[in-house]
Each structure stands twice: as structure tokens, then as C-alpha cells.
Amino acid sequence: MADTTSSVDTEDYIAIQRFPYAEAALLDRRAFQEWFALFTDDIRYVVTTQVARPAQDPTSQFAIIDEDHNALKMRVDQISDPNLTHAENPPTMTRRLVSNVEAYYGERNGVFEAQSNILLYASRPGEPETALHAGERQDTLIRDSNGFRIDKRTVNLAQAVLTSGTLSQLL
Amino acid sequence: MENNATGWVDSERGLVSRDAFISDEVYRLEMERIFNRSWIYLAHETEIPNIGDYVVRTLGNAPVIVVRDTADSVKVLLNSCRHRGAKLCRGDAGNTKNFVCPFHGWAYEIDGALRTTGFDHHFREDTDFGSMGLVPAPNVESFHGLIFANWDKNAITLRDYLGDIGWYLETFFNRTPGGMEVLAPPHRWRTKANWKIGSLNFIGDSQHSPTTHIGPSTLDSARTIRDGFRKHGQDSFHVVTDEGHGCTLTYLTPGMPEKNYHTHPDALKPLYEKSLNTDQVSMLHHLRVCVGTIFPNLSFIESQVGAGEKAVSVRLWHPVSGTEMEVLSWVFAEKEADQDYKDRVLRNGFHNFGAVGVFEQDDMELWASATSASSNPIAQQYPYSFQTALPYLDSPAEDHKWPGRAHRPADTEVAQFWFMQRWDALMRTNES
Ligand code: FES
Ligand SMILES: [Fe+2]
After folding, report:
1. Which ranges of B233-276 does DSSP label H, i.e. alpha helix?
2. Phi, psi (degrees; rounded to nearest 5) at A86
3. Could you tell me which of B412, B408, B388 has the C-alpha nearest to residue B253?
4. Which of B84, B99, B117, B134 has the most ligand 1 atoms within 8 A of CB, as the residue to mutate?
5. Which of A49, A148, B54, B149 has a CB 3.0–4.6 Å from the CB of B67, allowing a cystine?
6. What is the pLDDT of residues B306-361, one digit of tens each?
7. Yes or no, beta carbons of B365 and A57 under 8 Å apart
8. Complex ipTM, two decimals?
9. How many domains does chain A have?
């Protein structure tokens, strides 16, 4: 995705690098609605896993989540309200580690293409095993007066089977 | 355990031993007495449309390759080399001209026949290479694109096995001349719960919906449509058929406006009339939701997803052990539907029922909790209750004109107990 664009300058890079840190902090302290406010109204939020195919074949990612603003809102509303969720009540204890940030100028002024890696550590109460989900994140960010907003997010999980069950956490 | 002549199900009292839902010993017996003798769903034909296309799945607990061979027929082959057992395919899907074993190089045709060991000259002259192909499942059949296989040579035909539930399956999978199409590879996830909870959930667990799914049912934007149903009146009942299959239907009372039908694209409606009989079209016209299970571990749901689409979703509850399953989930649409509609069906279908679906996440949390809290000797002394089946089991609805036996109301455990009774009967038979 970052093929046609060039790397951002240091000042922009630092700003873009901080953005997923702040975002991860919101999610880890379960401020889901504040997190959701970081998305534009045109958001497309996609999470993929892979089909394990022979190495000669192209990588075969396919969406397990592909949502617009409405659908993502419902997902966020569901886990935000303790009365409306079982998967997140009691809350999953999480830590999100974001790294390997790269940033490029996007198609017009104020638009950036950012990449990062995310590692989600998740511990369900009563579950002896903790879950780890690792993914590559590709974001289209738009800068406005309040900072960055996410216009498109794709998270490519490095898994063919979600071995720790379904995923009620946001990425 | 091997001699559990009295079984796990107490039909007099509507109880089922917890052992059935946690024990690895029961799991091993299930493999022998149910999964290696029943028709098990593996894949849909549209997942392997071209010659040489294959997917790797599991039949019972044996890894198998489901492949379209050069004769354009589907073969199910044990994914284990006849030499020393290595896997021919170590991924989950692909396309190939032949299967060459990476260990010592035995090569097989895509229909499984052995082409050469590479060392044929070192074998004795009387070696019967013709009998050394990949082990095929002796019975493979399709029902409107749904591929099933059975390890039992003497199995009854798939048609006979499906029996009356076939009428309903046909309505969902053969409603246009082109048939249904899988829209994406299956979502797959592991859940630390016994596989039967999934089968039971879909055959008829209406009681779980208001509590388990309080989230989506409070937030769902398609609620207005449901409210319309409430206003116009709806009917809801279980259907059970031989071999332990069943489904639960909720539909608009006949004579009421056919609101739901409008959620199918206009272009498809005339096609339904081409492929289905009048009763089936009428059923589809009025249907709000149908969830069902084909014994033992295939489930399906036809329902509204979002305001403008109806999705058919298929679920496979594959047992991994007594306390764990792997779930595969597919979403289907009519082949003739336009791409935009298919995209919406896929997105909205998986929003609800995918690996990370807003329904799924709460189901899985609670199924795992049921399995984990039952896995101890104290809990095992106290059987699970299916008692709300008992008052209704012997009084089927008399006005049911479609195949199978119907039971009202739908918020009882009749269909689930029907499933468990069939399961128990098979688990107690020992002839092979
Ligand atoms: S195990 Fe396959 S060739 Fe030896
Ligand atoms: Fe459910």
C-alpha cells in the first residue's frame, strides 16, 4: 500500500508514531467510545486471517471483520455496556504493544498511510491460558485540527485459525 | 464407559449426564460410533470449482483432502502417505496436478491412485501398486453442493440419511437454478467447549437468545423489521426428523404481509419459483429465521442480517476433544445475485455470525464456561436439565403440513432432547 508514496519527515513521523500509542492506551483502559471517536464517518474497519496455502501461491488473506461506521459502532456499543456483553464482562485484561511504525505521505495533503505491528495480549478471567494476537496494521490517517483520525484500518492477523477462540477485543 | 448400557440420557426425567459433555473417553467413543459411521459435512462444491482444487478438512478425526479430480468428481482422500504416513498437503487449500509426498517422493494422481513410488524396481514383482493409492472415503455424496462423506462402507445413501430435513435444506441451498455459492473461505476458531453445545444450540435453543444475545438484540438496527413481525404475528416451532436432525422456524403467520420477502433482491424472486415447489416458496416468503442441525455436527441458519439482506450461514462443530472444538463458518448467497448484494451478505453475515461475530462472541464465552465448570467430579454428579422437553415430546402439532414432525411452542427443549436421544442410541450400539 505504501508503494506510491514517500516517507514522511521527522516531525510528522513522531506525531504519527505517537498516535497508535495513545490509541492503545484508550483501548487498554477500556475507553472504547473515546477510541471510536478517532474514526471518520466513512471508516472501513477490516480484520483478516489467512488461508494456509502452498508457498508458491499468493498470500490469501480474507476478512473476518469488514465493517462500516454503523456496524463498528454496534460492536463498540455492545462491549461498552456491561449489561450488553458477556464476552467482555468481566472485562478481558489486555495490553496492546504497537511497534514498527512506518509512515508515508498519502494521496493528498493531510492524508497519511501508516503501518505498524500490533501484539494484543488478552487474559480472560477464569481462563487459565492467555491469548496472543499478532497483526500488521495498515491505516489511512487524516489530519484535522484535533489531530489524526482513522479513515481506513486493516489489521492482517498472522493466523489461519483463531486458536484462542473468538475475538471480542478491538484492534 | 465402554459398557455404558444404560446410556447418558435419562428419557424419563429429561436429564443428560454431564459426562457426555466433557469426557475424552466419550469423545473417543463418539469418533468410533458416530463420526466414523455418519455422513459428515466437509465442504461446499463452490470452494473447489476447478479441477485440481482442494481443501484440507477432517472426517471424524482423520485429516482428509477434498479434491476435484480430472473426471470433475469430488474425492475425499486420507491426507497421509501410504508409505510412512506423511501429509501430502500441509496447508489448508490449493490447486495441484498431483500429490507428491515430500518425505520420500511417492507420487499420486489427484484421484488418489499411486503413480510411482520412485523405487518401484525395488519392490517384489507381485506388488499390487493398484491397491496402494491414498485411502479414499468409501462414500462421498453431494446434496445441492454440500459435500458429505462417510467412512462406513455400508452407509445408507446421503438422501436417505437426510430424509425429511432435506426438504428444508433444499429450500435454502437449491432455491435458484444456479444454486448457492460460498462467498469466502471459512472462518475458523477454537473454542474450549464440547461440540454438542453447538449442535444443540442450532437445533433449537430458543431459550438462550434473550439472555445470551441481549447485546445484539438490544442494539440491532434490523430491529424495526422484527417489530414489524411482532405486530403482524409470527409462528415459531421446532421440526424434528429421523436420524436426529431438526430445525427451529420462526415465520410470519400466513396471510400477513410478506415483509421479509422484500429483503431478497427482486431479481431473485422469480428464480425461487423456478427451483422450489409452492410450499417451499411460501415457507421462504414468510420466514424470519430458521436455525437447524444435521446430525451430528453441521448447523445452518437462514436469517436476516442487516436491514436488506438474508444470509445463509453454515457452521461445522468439529470435535477436537471432550472439551474443545474447532468451528468453521461459511456464508452463502445465490449464485445469480449481483456482486454488491453478495458483498453486503458477506459483511453483514460475518458481522453477526463470523469468527468475531457479535452473536458468536457471547455464545462462545458462555459455552466455554459451561464446559469448564462441568469438568470436575462434583459437578458430574448433577446431570444437565432438558426438562422443558418432557411435557411436549409426545404431542406433535397436528396442523404441520411440511415434512418432519413439528412441536410448538419453540421455546422448549424438544428438538435438543431429540438430538440427545439419537446421540445416546448410537453411542449404545456396538456393532460395526
Ligand atoms: S512417507 Fe510418503 S513417501 Fe515416504
Ligand atoms: Fe447463540
Report:
1. 269-275
2. -105, -35
3. B408
4. B84
5. B54
6. 667 888 999 999 999 999 999 999 999 999 999 999 999 999 889 888 888 899 99
7. no
8. 0.94
9. 1
Q: Give the gap in angstroms from C-alpha A154 to the nearest C-alpha of chain B.
A: 14
Query: Is the domain covering B40-158 a CATH 1.20.140.10 domain?
Result: no
B237 three-class SS: strand
Instruction: Please answer yes or no on whether A166 and B188 come within 8 Å at the CB atom.
Output: no
A103: domain CATH number is: 3.10.450.50
Dihedral through CA B28, CA B30, CA B36, CA B41, nearest 10? Answer: -120
- Consecutive H or E run containing B291: strand B287-294
Predicted confidence (pLDDT) per residue in A97-125, tens digit: 999 999 999 999 999 999 999 999 999 99
Q: Does residue A125 have a cis peptide bond before it, meaning omega lies within 30 degrees of 0? A: no
Calculate how close chain B gets to A91, using CA atoms only, in Å.
12
Please name the residue whose Cα sits nearest to atom 3 of ligand 1.
B104
pLDDT digits (tens, 9 = 90+) for B60-109: 999 999 999 999 999 999 999 999 999 999 999 999 999 999 999 999 99
CB–CB contact A84 B326 (8 Å)? no
**A164 falls within a domain:** no
Q: For ligand 1, atom 1, name the residue with the nearest CA.
A: B84
Q: Which residue of A has its CA nearest to B343?
A: A66
Q: Residue A107 domain-assigned?
A: yes
B187/A contact by beta carbon, under 8 A: yes
**B147 beta partners:** B43, B142
Nearest chain B residue to A91 by CA distance is B365
For the beta carbon of residue B385, count every other beta carbon within 10 angstroms: 12
Give me the total of CB pairs closer than 8 Å, taking one residue from chain A and one from chain B: 114
- Give the pLDDT of chain A (171 residues) as one tens digit per residue: 444 568 999 999 999 999 999 999 999 999 999 999 999 999 999 999 999 999 999 989 999 999 999 999 999 999 999 999 999 999 999 999 999 999 999 999 999 999 999 999 999 998 888 999 999 999 999 999 889 999 999 999 999 999 988 899 999
CATH number belonging to domain B183-427: 3.90.380.10
Are the beta carbons of B218 and A87 separated by less than 8 Å?
Answer: no
A139 part of a folded domain? yes
Q: Would you call A166 and B360 a contact, using CB atoms and an 8 Å cutoff?
A: yes
The pLDDT value given to residue B51:
98
- Judging contacts by C-beta atoms under 8 Å, the chain B residues touching residue A131 are none
Q: Of B237, B76, B50, B217, nearest to B150 (Cα)?
A: B76
Distance from CA of A129 to the nearest CA of B (A): 11
**Which residue is associated with the grid cell 476478512?**
A63
Report the alpha-carbon distance of residue B155 to residue B161 in Å, rounded. 9
Domain ranges of chain B: 40-158, 183-427
Q: Name which residue sits closest to atom 4 of ligand 1, judged by CA.
A: B104
